[in-house]
TrEMBL record:
Keywords: Amino-acid biosynthesis, CBS domain, Cysteine biosynthesis, Lyase, Pyridoxal phosphate. Its cofactor is pyridoxal 5'-phosphate. It comes from Orchesella dallaii. It comes from the Eukaryota. Pathway: Amino-acid biosynthesis; L-cysteine biosynthesis. It is an enzyme of class 4 (lyase). Belongs to the cysteine synthase/cystathionine beta-synthase family. It catalyses: L-homocysteine + L-serine = L,L-cystathionine + H2O. The lineage of its organism: Eukaryota, Metazoa, Ecdysozoa, Arthropoda, Hexapoda. Its EC number is 4.2.1.22. This is Cystathionine beta-synthase.
Length: 361
């Protein structure tokens, strides 16, 4: 909700928020951050020590842990960037309403930025997305509109925008700031954390912002490093088309579409891998229990895909694969964390990831 006080502190004039803002030059690290947005970026890169090894993998496998972002995902980066660019070019003014179609994480990040800056916020989210995301958005002050899974939620957001005076849509699916922030920030962090040594990068594809931005920078700075795109079974974004078994329902959230977002540049993806829900959620549960990382479902998808890609490429000792871990289990406490939810969908009782074994053959 927009109050006069919040608007006074609303930050059309605030400096661009990025990783550099947490440091203070010669005075050493800043002890107190002006607001939560200054804690966006600089996520840790963490080694996986058990799961890759259990598949006989000898290369180093590292997770870029966007799940530790203050809003809970890599979408914090794009939300603050899209909003500050809209402020800077005059499209977004105090008192305005920010509207955004979302599978949840962008919505949470946009709502977080709006809470700090004092904008009203309306988020449009398909029914299948978790209640946890919905409740978090509400608590951040946003209005949430649910739409049926079979309706493209961007059309609903467009309609609300037309009917809401003084509103803007950030449009993560078409906004070129989405891939650009990953090109400028996320990839630079990864390259710095890896001292420029990287033999494979694996990224789940939703809007395509992460894979496009990261892929473009990798092609420039590390051209021999393959970029692997991961697409859930039921989605139809992968190439060649023969990989896609046609449109269908899938439970994993945040990745996969049966249409192509404008942000997605498939030319940066060297290889696509398809992953089923069952493998996704069993792997996400394993990452939590064996690596101690409280990941969301799409991290499981990415790890299953990475294991297949590493084996197919024959990556070995002394080589290194980075996997993007987009969000945390916080969004899915009533979903794949629950044995009941897993059982109801016949994702259990296998305690192992079934697909993993076929790759040995
Ligand atoms: N995983 C999760 C959980 C997400 O919310 C998203 C964003 N939709 C992605 C992966 C994919 O990221 P991107 O939109 O940058 O392709």
């Amino acid at each position: 909700v927009c109050t006069a006080d919040k608007l006074k502190t609303a930050s059309a004039k605030q400096p661009q928020v990025h990783v550099a803002s947490v440091a203070n030059g010669s005075q050493g690290p800043v002890k107190i951050l002006p607001n939560v947005l200054h804690n966006i970026g600089k996520t840790p890169l963490i080694r996986l020590n058990r799961i890759p090894q259990s598949f006989g993998i000898e290369c180093e496998v590292l997770a870029k842990c966007e799940l530790f972002a203050p809003g809970g995902s890599h979408k914090d980066r794009i939300a603050v960037r899209m909003i500050e660019e809209a402020e800077a070019d005059g499209r977004l003014k105090p008192g305005y309403t920010v509207i955004e179609p979302t599978s949840g994480n962008t919505g949470i990040s946009v709502a977080m930025v709006c809470a700090v800056k004092g904008y009203k916020c309306i988020l449009v989210m398909p029914e299948k997305m978790s209640a946890e995301k919905h409740w978090t958005m509400n608590r951040l002050g946003a209005t949430v509109v649910r739409c049926p899974n079979n309706i493209v939620h961007t059309t609903v957001a467009d309609k609300i925008h037309r009917e809401t005076p003084n509103s803007i849509i950030l449009d993560q699916y078409g906004n070129e700031a989405n891939p650009r922030v990953h090109y400028e920030e996320t990839t630079e962090e990864i390259l710095e954390q890896c001292d420029g040594k990287l033999d494979m990068i694996v990224i789940g594809v939703g809007t395509g912002g992460a894979v496009t931005g990261i892929g473009r920078k990798i092609k420039e700075k590390c051209p021999s490093c393959p970029v692997i795109g991961i697409d859930p079974v039921g989605s139809t974004m992968a190439l060649p088309e023969s990989l896609n078994s046609g449109p269908g329902f899938f439970e994993v959230e945040g990745i996969g579409h049966t249409w192509l977002p404008d942000c997605l540049d498939r030319s940066v993806i060297d290889k696509w891998i398809k992953v089923s829900d069952k493998d996704t959620f069993n792997m996400a549960r394993r990452i939590i229990s064996e690596e101690g990382l409280l990941v969301g479902g799409s991290c499981g998808t990415a790890v299953v895909g990475a294991i297949q890609a590493i084996k197919e490429a024959g990556l070995g000792k002394g080589q290194r694969c980075v996997i993007i871990f987009p969000d945390s289990v916080r969004n899915y406490m009533t979903k794949f964390l629950s044995d009941q939810w897993m059982l109801e969908r016949a994702f259990l009782p296998d305690s192992e990831v079934s697909l993993g074994y076929s790759w040995w053959n």
